[in-house]
Amino acid sequence: MDAFFRILELIGTLAFAVSGANVGVEKRMDIFGVAILGVTTAVGGGVLRDLVIGVTPPQAFQEPVWLITALVTSILVFFPFLRRLAAKSRARLDTLLLVTDAVGLGIFTVTGITTAMERAGCRSVLLLLFVGMLTGTGGGVLRDVLAGDMPYIFRKHIYASASLVGAGVFLLARLLAPEAAAVLLGVGAVVAMRCLAAHYAWNLPRAASVWQKD
Predict the structure, then answer these.
(1) Which tens digits make up the pLDDT trace of 67-93?
(2) Single pTM value for the model
């Protein structure tokens, strides 16, 4: 199972690094800015998780392979020849970014929960749901703050909610099925919700201003 989770974390790191670095590219940042956004998106949620559950120094600094992987991936995204290959069809590129981001969200939601249980002995369902969501969405929130945007989870589509649902599915499935199957079900639930929400433009209700313009 350890190898299985490490493969999942590698896939999630790659997916989130691509997502974060692409925001830097779209903001026309220099290579340092693109690298920072990519690395922050990839490992930021895990760092926040570790601080919450009391794992210090955070795992990202204990095992720098994840930082290095995110850094190398972000630098590759920076170079235009790779983006030209992916951008032959803008619709395909948008779909690729959506799917990679959804996969990263699902993987880090689930691995965030397993890390909290294994490294800190967390058993509270409420805490595990929160930690899973924080691991999945924290890096994206930090990315958007650094990029000068309102965090994505507060403004568009079903995102943090998908993470919470996936976390719940994973915790429930662990009681009824082998852990590997529970992981796949949890990740699959997140990816399915994200892709359906993007396709059908599902959004949570938004607050309406009580002030009317004259």
Answers:
(1) 999 999 999 999 876 656 555 666 677
(2) 0.88
Q: Would you state the torsion angle of the CA atoms of residues 153, 161, 134, 148, taken in this order, to the nearest 10 degrees?
A: 0
For the chain, what's the residue count? 214
**What is the three-state SS of 167-193?**
HHHHHHHHHHCCHHHHHHHHHHHHHHH
Burial class of residue 192 in the structure, from the number of CB atoms within 10 Å of its CB (0-12 exposed, 13-18 middle, 19+ buried): middle
Cα separation, 65 vs 33, whole angstroms: 20
Closest to 130 (Cα-Cα) out of 147, 109, 114, 148: 109
Location of structure tokens 């290095």: 68
CA separation for the pair 32, 30 (Å, rounded): 5
- Positive or negative, the Cα torsion across 125, 41, 26, 144? positive
Find the range with the poorest average confidence among 111-115, 151-155, 190-194. Answer: 151-155
For every residue of 91-106, which 3-state class applies, written as one string?
Answer: HHHHHHHHHHHHHHHH
Evaluate whether 29 touches 37 at the Cβ level (below 8 Å).
Answer: yes
